[in-house]
Amino acid sequence: MQMKKAMAISMIAAAISASAVTPVFAQTAAAKQSVQINTSSFLVNANPVSIRTVVDGGVTLASVRDMINAIGATLHINSDRTVVVKFGDHTLKFKHASKSITVNGTATPISHPVKEVAYSTFIEPAAFIEALGGSYENNAISTVELLDGAEHAVWVNASQLIVSNSAGEGREDYLVNAATGKYELLLTSEGASELVLSPDGTSVAYSDANGAVFTIDLATKQSKQVSTDNSIKNELQWSNDGASLFFLQGDKSSVIAKVTLADGKVSKVLEDKVDYKANLEVSADGTQFAFYVFKQPKVTADSNQDVELDDVAIDATGTEPQIYFYNAKAADNKPAQLTKDTTDKVFLQLSADGSKVSYVSVSNDEASLGQLVTIDNTGKASTPAFADKDVYQLVQGGSKLYLLTADGSSTNAIYEIDSETGASKLVQTVSDSTSELIVSGSANFAALIDGQLAVWTNGNWKNITN
């Protein structure tokens, strides 16, 4: 009896003990679960990723483990429960409920304390990512190191651009991801021409300082020499079928020629003994051409004076660029001069069918405005437009023309022009620090803004270079 009584007393004591402890445990568990864990969509280096989040005191916090897994960082928890995160040259340390994080040994305050929910650590994502050297905005995380500078850019496709920068005595060309800014070196050169993109977007071509022509496969990054001809080749332009390259030949750009990629053979298209051609434009069928011709200024000097005195007279009368059109199928086989006025002419564009050219006319008067002009290939029908705006740039994008213009005292504007009808519409207003517009054939937009290359994505300009 006594043994049964003792066992009963022990069971009662255990029950009392359990009844005293269980409510406390339940309250703790309930407190931990009072903050609901959700799953949110983030963009991590332009890739969609699901990351657990909680809302604490109106502030959204994100899972530390989910974020480090997404960016490729490492996580370690010390015996004193200090969380240690390492990413590149950055080491972060913090504890639960902490109101600061240590970044490479230096304590940095954060606006909301670290929180533990269901044995997982949550932290304000902007403070966390920026402490690791990345950037954070509207659930978009970027940890890619960006290219310094962008002097020239061209779209390859909707996801890549070629960006070129000067480097010492030469140039460096990079392939840059349009979404993340991640880049890789494509070519280092000295004395090479600009890279020109093939019509199918799979390769680029250039000529080196010796006149040899090369192509680079953009998928494999492999370079191939396609011609050993050593004549000077300026302003390479692809034929529409990708089988040949047109160019201005010679040190005075006197000849329009082409090189066939299959055999490297060079042939002349136009040799009219006229020097200083520039801005070569080629129609889609490869038979019609537009270009500038520059005349050199007349220089006279007193033969009785010592040449070291630089006592010379320079007469620049009549040296303004004039536009010429050449149809290789025409019976007379002679270029036609389309313009004869004294304005400067920039950003020459030939329509795909060769029927007309467009350009920006700029008067020597400093107070004058840049003006869009379209003229047919006979030179008779000239149509000026945008006379009330200062046109800074004209660029072709597929079948459309695009203008960058002044727009008020502190903004610029981008306009789209239908090549067939001439009808125009405002695309968007941009900062007046926008200096160059880059448009792809499928109307992807990029721009140089404050010296940084930015792409238009999801209704915003996003920098992809520093």
UniProtKB/TrEMBL annotation:
Any idea which UniProt keywords this protein has?
Answer: Signal
Q: Where is the signal peptide?
A: 1-26
Q: Which residues form the Copper amine oxidase-like N-terminal domain?
A: 44-138
Q: Name one Pfam family in it.
A: Cu_amine_oxidN1
Q: What is this protein called?
A: Sugar lactone lactonase YvrE
